[in-house]
Design a protein that fits this description.
single chain, 250 residues, alpha/beta, Metallo-beta-lactamase, Chain A, 14 strands, binds zinc ion
C-alpha cells in the first residue's frame, strides 16, 4: 500500500500546508481519506488520476475535510468518456445522505452520477467488507457523528483519526496498525477540546501498539515546537511528521 499526503494542514490557509486529505493506493483501488480544499489539485502533482478514485471516506462534515468532494464529483461529469461499471463509494458519518441531498439541491445534475453507479454508506461503529479489503469505523470525539477509519488490505493496516480528542475508540481503531495517522492540531500548552496534542497522540500510539505513527493536521501555532520530541516522550516507535506531497510505503 502507498499513502500520499494531499494536505497536512487545517482550515487556516498557509503557504506550506493545504487542508486535510490523504490518498491510499493498493491493487486496483485508490481511496481518499478526507478531502479538504486543494486535495484534488494535489493528485496530478503526485501522479494520481482522480478518475481511478473508487472510494471517498469522510470523517466528518467540517469544510477542511470534505469540500473537495464537490469538484471531484463535478470533474467526473466533465471528463470525456468517463464511464465505470464499478460503483464510486462514499463512506461517511451518519448524516452523509442528507449532506449529499443538500449538495444536490445546490449543484443539481452537475454533481449527480450519470456515467457510473454511486453508493453512499453511513457508518458509525462497524465494519464493511469489500471483495479484497475491509473498512472499520469507530466514533471519534470531535463533532457530532465524526468517525475514524481503519483500512485492512493485503495483510497491512492503516488507521486514520480525522479530527479527534483522546478517546478509547481511536486506541481500538489503531490497535497494532502498521501505520497510525493521527491529527495533531495544537501544542500541549495550547490544547483545545476536540483535538490532539503531540503528547496525547503519542499516548494513543503507545496504547494502541501502533508500529509507526504519522502526525498531521497541524495548525500554524506549531512554529518553533519540537513536535517529535514531545510526542516521543510517550511513543518510542517511529514518528513521522506529514508534509504536503509526502509518499509512504506501508
Ligand atoms: Zn480539521
Ligand atoms: Zn473538524
Amino acid at each position: 500500500m502507498e499513502l500520499y499526503v494531499l494536505g497536512s494542514g487545517t482550515c487556516i490557509p498557509t503557504v506550506d500546508r493545504g487542508p486535510s486529505g490523504l490518498a491510499l493506493s493498493f491493487g486496483p483501488h485508490l481511496i481518499l481519506l478526507d478531502g479538504g480544499g486543494g486535495s484534488l489539485r494535489q493528485m496530478p502533482r503526485l501522479g494520481l488520476d482522480f478518475r481511478k478514485v473508487d472510494f471517498q471516506c469522510l470523517t466528518h462534515f467540517h469544510p477542511d475535510h470534505v469540500i473537495d468532494l464537490i469538484p471531484l464529483l463535478f470533474a467526473m461529469n466533465y471528463t470525456v468518456d468517463f464511464t465505470r461499471s464499478d460503483p464510486f463509494h462514499i463512506i461517511g458519518p451518519v448524516g452523509l445522505k442528507i449532506f449529499f441531498e443538500k449538495m444536490r439541491g445546490i449543484f443539481g445534475h452537475w454533481i449527480e452520477a450519470h456515467t457510473y453507479p454511486l453508493s453512499l454508506h453511513e457508518a458509525g461503529n462497524g465494519e464493511i467488507d469489500f471483495q479484497d479489503f475491509s473498512v472499520q469505523t469507530r466514533p471519534m470525539l470531535h463533532s457530532t457523528s465524526s468517525i475514524g477509519f481503519r483500512v485492512n488490505a493485503e495483510g497491512r493496516s492503516i488507521a486514520y483519526s480525522g479530527d479527534t480528542d483522546y478517546c478509547g475508540d481511536i486506541v481500538t481503531l489503531g490497535k497494532e496498525a502498521d501505520l497510525l495517522v493521527l491529527e495533531c492540531s495544537f501544542p500541549d500548552e495550547r490544547k483545545k477540546e476536540g483535538h490532539l496534542t503531540p503528547t496525547l497522540a503519542g499516548r494513543i500510539a503507545r496504547e494502541a501498539g501502533a508500529k509507526k505513527l504519522l502526525l498531521t493536521h497541524f495548525y500554524p501555532v506549531f512554529g518553533g515546537h519540537d513536535i517529535r520530541k514531545e510526542c516521543g516522550q510517550e511513543f518510542s516507535g517511529e514518528i513521522l511528521l506529514a508534509v504536503d506531497g509526502m509518499k509512504l510505503n506501508i
